[in-house]
Records
---
Amino acid sequence: MMPSTLKYRIEMTPFGFSSEFNYLQLIMSTSFQTQTDEDSCSYQETGQVVNSDIEFVRLQINDNSLYCRYIKKGVIDNRIQSISNSIFSIDSSQQTSTNISRQVGINIPYYRYNALIDPDYSFISDLLPANDKDGSICDPLRKRGLTKLQILGIIFGGVGLIIVLIIIYFGYKMITDWNFKIKFWRKVDRFIKMKKLNKL
């Protein structure tokens, strides 16, 4: 379990199932909001933690996130059993730049005496702010320019294009301009000789 994590213990008492093939769905609604009215962005994502029986929901506003984990196991009648989770679709009317929420249904199988589940919640800081992620919702007044990743992409792409153009130029001159070719190789030869002299 990660630092700054709240373990939420839920214990169910006997429930009147009509059949042993039925299950009980416990719906948990999680919300995350900020008091900042302007210049905010929100983002949320869901997924499966790699190599585990844990599903997660991340609710992020700016560079802070509420990280919710739902393990796909529970203690059913004092025995550990598999359970499933249903992560509901985003309700667009419930998501703004300063307030987001998500509902998760925990599907508890038939039990006679008790059922115990324990999702956990962590508050974490993100290296990549919400406004730099695709699909984020930002305040309409926010001047949303290029993201850091887009800026880096433009820089690397521009440098790569310049290098390619230089190579093409020199290649073209070497093929079509005999005087340029002679001068170029003389400079190369002079450079090699200078390097050899410096080593002596």
---
Amino acid sequence: MFYGAVVWDPWLIVAQIVCLQCLYYLSLGVFLSFLVGTRVSRMSLVYFFDFATVTTSTVTGWCVIASFLLSSIAGAGYLLYLIERAKKCLDFSATLYIIHLFICIVYGGWPSSVTWWVVNGIGVAVMALLGEYLCIRRELREIPITRYRSNV
């Protein structure tokens, strides 16, 4: 990993966005299946993309909220391995949530729930800040320098 010469590669950026989005929805699906799937008779895309399911008035709504927040924590781990740069974490996190907003608008209309906006705002903040923290820790690790001594 040499960071001195930065080459703008749009295909790499698109591939990282696609991979990050897919991994985010995969982890969201896993968390929803464990937390919400045990409470409802049938899982559907409603829990992924409909703002009405993100509510604090039911236990199932709280499980949906927990699934979204746990997915943002998992997303920070994905940022560590896919993006690898602390200064790019906010960009990729915001892109993920903007794409999620567009999908939600297409699926169920403009999110009019304050809870949905708060949960997704916290999600993007957690994902970006935790991802930056993890990437900074990796970038600031000491570089191991080994000396080979000949035992003469």
---
Amino acid sequence: MQTTRSVNNIQFLPFLTTDVNNLSWLSYGLLKGDKTLIVVNAVGAFLQTLYMLTYLHYCPRKRTVLLQTAALLGVLLLGYSYFQLLVPDWTSRLRQLGLFCSIFTISMYLSPLADLVKIIQTKSTQCLSFSLTVATLLASASWTLYGFRLGDLYIMVPNIPGILTSLICLGLFWQYRQVQEKSYSLLQT
């Protein structure tokens, strides 16, 4: 965004949902007292907020971005109020927050599959990011192993779809190599 000084075809919603995901897992980590969850998600939330601010700076339609952000902040505030005021038992709060984080994480990991029909019809993976797919695979595998090590199903289970989705996307990259890669390989022969 800084290089082109525009947001081009970059969507804002993934930045926003990832920030909410980080903030949710940060809350879970704080409630559980898990330093790894706290540090990783605090850094993640900070970086996502910087990405969002950069997007806002270069976005021509700031009103839409601000409305989406305000709406999600409102949902976060409602969620925080619910967990603090209406779920007084620590164990119940931890279970419900873990379940919320898990569902939200699973929905984030499954979102690339929405482009599956388009990819197969066009035989092109241009709407996918290879580096993001690899990063998602590594992060999902790491969190799955961490959750397994802790015996925490709320951490382990929602990251398994991230592994599966990444493997499906990597298979699509292999099946439908990008046009530039094919042209380049033809020039070499």
